[in-house]
Records
---
Amino acid sequence: MDFATWEPVYEAILADFGYDRAGDERARDWLASVYERRAVEPYAPDSGAFAGETVAIAGAGPSLLDDAELVRDADAIVAASTAAGRLRDVGFDLDFVVTDLDKHAETVRKLTNEGIPVAVHAHGDNVDTLRQYVPTFDLASVVPTTQAAPSGPVANYGGFTDGDRAAFLADHLGAGELVFPGWDFEDDSLGAEKRQKLQWAERLLHWLEQRRDEVFRLLDGRRDAIVTGPLPFS
């Protein structure tokens, strides 16, 4: 994702949530500093790693295990957040994990120590968690990411929530087709801010399917509402 293309979308997200760009940048810079202090190179994903493959973008919603067939039929699995542990618990091998460390940092530590690549995301609200856990990870298995401008070892592949960032990452890695087990836009248990984030996830996935010239079944029956929303890229 070219940051000049991403930046207007990022600015719209900041405005919608009232987030502080400077906070994201401080978190990004702290994450970069870990690599600089330890003289460690981050995991560098091969841009053709998923070339031509069907990639399951596993969300952490209640339907995840009900959608196990989608996961099983995929060539590769990119798990968002706590979907990683749930899929591992039932025997799936993961190809990539995308997370801001909310709720499952200990699982992420184990994954990195096993050599499973994890895109660890820095933003203004998770600096304390980053400081607590990132130094305990195998940094050579971590892809440090930001939603602000990329800097040093910290990359920006596009996306906002763990789930849509996983989709943008898989796109960057050359995925031939994306499928979406475990995505529940109508989950009644979610609070207002999480619902707002999922609305942005919908918008960003709609943008991604347009960029890829692909149709995501996940968005069937939802596109009309997305198109009429306040999209900076419509």
---
Amino acid sequence: MSEARRSDLLRDWAVDLAIASVCAIFFGLIGPFGSYLNGPTWQRVVFQLACFLPGTLLFGSLIRVVLRLRLNPAMTWMSIFLGVVILNAPFQIWVVSIAVSIWPFLKILRPLDWYLQGLITALPIVLGFTFLMQARLHRRQQAKEAGEAPPTAFGLLGAPPSAVLCLQMEDHYVRVRTAGSYG
């Protein structure tokens, strides 16, 4: 794997996990499915974080694998939908174990209740993340086709700000001069 691809992958996962954390905090605050009755806000937030972060790793991997297959759009969406339906079952074992350890009275819920709640929650979130990942891939593909180098860690200049000696204006262009650019 190239260094640029590895960097993109790590950055994408970091963004996805950050978005998942924000979603988890939001869900913890609003308490969906009556969970606002389960206990204090901090418990709900901890529970949602314990669900969203592993869920993002699980379902995010599913999305990445399916998108990497480059299927036609109908097959892509069908594969992601079926993947969520299938992966939701083992994922709910994790969710139930956490929920029941925090709130023992939740043992009264049936496995089908847990599964359906998880599915209702996971499907729109996975669809949203799929759109996000497709937009990233599309943007990178456009940059590649245009022959543009993607931005580096130093930004579009290609040099750290400390290495820039001067900026030279030429019509509507700006030439960045560094110690290495003088010849």
---
Amino acid sequence: MSVLSFRRGAVGVGAAAVLAATGTWVMWPAGVDAGLWAEVRPVIEARVAADSSGGGYGEAVPAWKARWFCLAEALELEEHAGEVRAGVNTLCVEYGVLDQSLVECGAGQHPQVVRLQRDAAADGGYRVVSREEPPDGEGYGRWTRAHFGVLVRSSLHEPMPSAALESAARAHFGLPADASVGYC
């Protein structure tokens, strides 16, 4: 290999590294303020759970006690002039009870952008003013590219664990901590 070929290769590798680093910096997820997240997370999870009702199998069976439980994971969190923009990944699972067992009747994991405003009268000091989620099908990729950076988008495909939701559902329905989980 000649010296000229080596230099061209080094320049090409260097240019690629600069472009990659610049792109990564521009698309790096915003830092998540743990204190702010602790304030807005319960408000987001309550709103997402309330909006989830109506689509699960458990609600269609009147004899069952069924309820949606939701978990939000912060991907991006910004506060500006009393308004918070939270880019989140959410997991919602509908649980019911059948023969003293927990039964999973429906579930969904979706990225969302939730906007909240400070409101002293609201429970938790914040209220949700808007919530967006991607459309099903073709528009999903376009929506996530428009709303999240490249590094955040890659985390959207990782499954969220449901153990905390199972524990919350068992407690809500008064089931033992080791009650089995079945499916509708």
---
Amino acid sequence: MTLSRGWAWLQDYAYVAYWQVHGFLFRDDPAPYLQAAGREDQPVLLIPGIYEKWQFLKPIADDLRQAGHPVHVVEPLGYNRGTVAKMAELVSAYLAAANLQNVTIVAHSKGGLIGKYAMTMPGAAGRIARMVAINTPFSGSVYARFFLVPSIRALSPSNSALRSLAAELSVNHRITSVYSSFDPHIPGGSELPGAENIELDLMGHFRIIGDSKVLKVIRSVLSGKGASGN
């Protein structure tokens, strides 16, 4: 088990390295993702994790575009280094500016916290139908407390803002939390009370993004089937 987890960790960082380099060398234009046809009434908004640009979620964007869903990104998020509240304000502003309705948020890691926060905001709540959060530290990560960087320390279980967000239960029933059976960055797991929780037989924090099992969960949620569609 130790060897397999160690190998999964190495593969995870290889995945990160590939997509970070890809995002730096290839400035993908998000505009074509808005031109999908067939599911215009079910737009998707992607929210990446900390130190991730939207291109990090490109495997998801490509899959959803192929399925006909317009895929939106909030470019001002950049590498997502701001506070959860500040990033949620940018998400809310984008939803209003684009006049989006019946939005499904698909988010990774910290992006899920931002998505949940946005779901509680008066200006955004009515525009967001649901969220699929991938490996999101809803209860924080014990490792975050060892970092000096404020943006990472904010993900500690003792952070007051994170604890307040965790105590907000009213939107949890509209969230699907999908996560790895072993996540080296979130040892406490990503289970969210009151949400649809789906643990997959996968390892890693990042590499799960492009896995077919995760893509299947996202498509099932969008079709209204939820976990029963897996």
